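Lab channel / #folding
Pinned by the channel admin:
"Please post every new chain as: sequence first, then the structure tokens as a reply. Keep commentary short and put observations after the output so the thread stays searchable."

First post following the new format, from NK:
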Amino acid sequence: MACRHLIATVLAVAVVGSAQIGKAGKKEEWISLFDGRTLRGWHTNPQRIGHGTGGQWSVEDGAIVGQQDPPGSGNGGILLTDRQFGDFELLIEMKPDWGVCSGVFLRSNQRGQCYQMMVDYHDRGNVGHIYGEGIGGFTNRAFSIFGVYGKDRSRPLKLRTEPTGFVDPHGYTISGPQWVKIWKLNDWNTARIRVVGHPPKITTWINGVKVCEFDARAFEHPRYDKRRVMKLIGPKGHIAVQVHGGKGWPVGAKCRWRNIKIKILD
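Reply from TO:
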């Protein structure tokens, strides 16, 4: 019996020690950025930005929920981590309502200037490719998504894609039909994002399948100015999630995020 108590004590100490290592942010350990109950460790944009004063954020059923503040007002914003990160891998589950324009901000400053993994879940939108948020509006998206509707146009029965005609010779992209196969309609989807280097190479996966590779050192686009972007975006920044401003966001629509974890690589 004493031996059993000793083993239990050792195991308990090991678990506590492991949790403390994760909290401290040891390299190569997965760290939880969201406790599932509160917004501790996060903050809204401190000053008004192009999307608004911050948006409305809450925790519901273990998920961060974002919408316009008040709904339908056009007032959005971003929710940023208090901490800044350089090279990392991020895991984040997402469940956007159809019609929302959102995204995961990478190396963001307080004004929301960043590399963004798009979560533009609407007609002519895209989920998984990279957009230059406030740094030129460039994108490596190779296709756009569209809904296929029945009588109810607020929720598609399935999705289809159309090519944009853009080809990034220095990167990689999944095809539109492949993307449709991996996306879970009206369900949770898991994104994995790897950001390494300055300028960074950004790789994204959805539900375990690689969606794109974006190499900011070699990327070519009429709206991409590497020197300008490097002045605006440093080697470290915040991670953020977005509620887009403007009247395009459907009244009452929400975007949900949960199980947010990061692995520090630098």
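NK: The mean pLDDT is 92.
TO: also worth noting, The chain has two domains: 1-28, 33-264.
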